[in-house]
Amino acid sequence: MNSETTEIVKKLLESPKRAVVVGHKNPDGDAVGSCLALSFILNRLGHKSDVIMPNDFPDFLKWLPGSEDIVIHDKDTDKSMTLINEAEIVFTLDFNALDRTGDMQQFLEDSTAKFVLIDHHQEPDSYAVASYSDTSMSSTSEMIYHFLEALDEIGILCVEVATHLYTGIMTDTGSFRFPSTTATTHRVIAHLIEMGANNSEIHQNVYDTNTPDRLRLLGVALKNLTILSEYNTAYITLTQKELDTHNFRRGDTEGFVNYALSVTGIVFAVIFIENKQDKLVKMSFRSKGNFSVNEFAREYYNGGGHINAAGGRSNQPLSKTVTEFISILPNYKKALTDAS
Ligand code: 5GP
Ligand code: MN
């Protein structure tokens, strides 16, 4: 975090403040971990802070300390509105534009609070008085650690915050395997373990909580895997019916797209997930090497993310979405074959 941003944040936090810490829609481990960590820290520094998420987060994160107090905007809109209205500072974590908060966007835009952005996605919007944006970071959770260092508050780390940050870094780095994982990431992780994060227990809590339904849904996803070898591309589809048959719960499809990317020679992987209620198809994109799925998702699917992991959506029916996707690939043939 640069010194200018540090000074602005230090000034904002000089006296006790009411704050809310907000994550993105469909919160993942990094969003939930970083928001809980920052909120715990603010409360320990004498402020009054709450975490608000636009919608519910996956069950595999519900053991996180303090997760039971997270306000879910679409379930508890009145409480969320009150907290946003009363807030003097709004921290927005792990996203780069207010439209990533879904129905919360309007309330946030109407707020008179000072905004602070902490995020590692590309091309952040400029709604904040202080923006700590670093696309080279493994995760927003790692950034919260560096944020504490910049504020000279690293001594405030406790077992709960170490657990939040470990979980966020672990989930956003694919368990420390993505290229964004650096020597510094591992040093941060080592310190978090020293501060009481129980690494083995955290891995178990997050990854060993499959239901039989989820594993069978994975079986369906793998059966639906299609390889387009001409383009080093693989994709998976899941229909609403397939989700319903397996009693789909939020988070159940997390990581499925990585199986498509794990096929030898594949550099571009996509999962298309039908959502009849919202009348859209949600897509997750993953890539290896220089092929930027962030640019691809921005260009065609009203989305974005990082160079090797991004998301987007289509308002066309599932089959049309897939046909259109395939028709785009010839434009990228060189990029996709050079990248392998
Ligand atoms: P996932 O595919 O796991 O949902 O998301 C991969 C990455 O892309 C995450 O960093 C996530 O925040 C980002 N992402 C997912 N969906 C969207 C979207 O619709 N818009 C933008 N801008 N980013 C997204
Ligand atoms: Mn993240």
Automatic annotation (TrEMBL):
SUPFAM superfamilies per the UniProt record, alphabetical: DHH phosphoesterases (SSF64182)
Residue span(s) of domain DDH: 20-169
Segments passing through the bilayer: 256-273
A GO molecular-function annotation: nucleic acid binding
InterPro entries assigned: DDH_dom, DHH_sf, DHHA1_dom, Oligoribo/pAp-PDE_c-di-AMP_PDE
Keywords recorded for this protein, A-Z: Membrane, Transmembrane, Transmembrane helix
Stretches assigned to the DHHA1 domain: 246-325
The protein, known as: Bifunctional oligoribonuclease and PAP phosphatase NrnA
Origin species: Constantimarinum furrinae
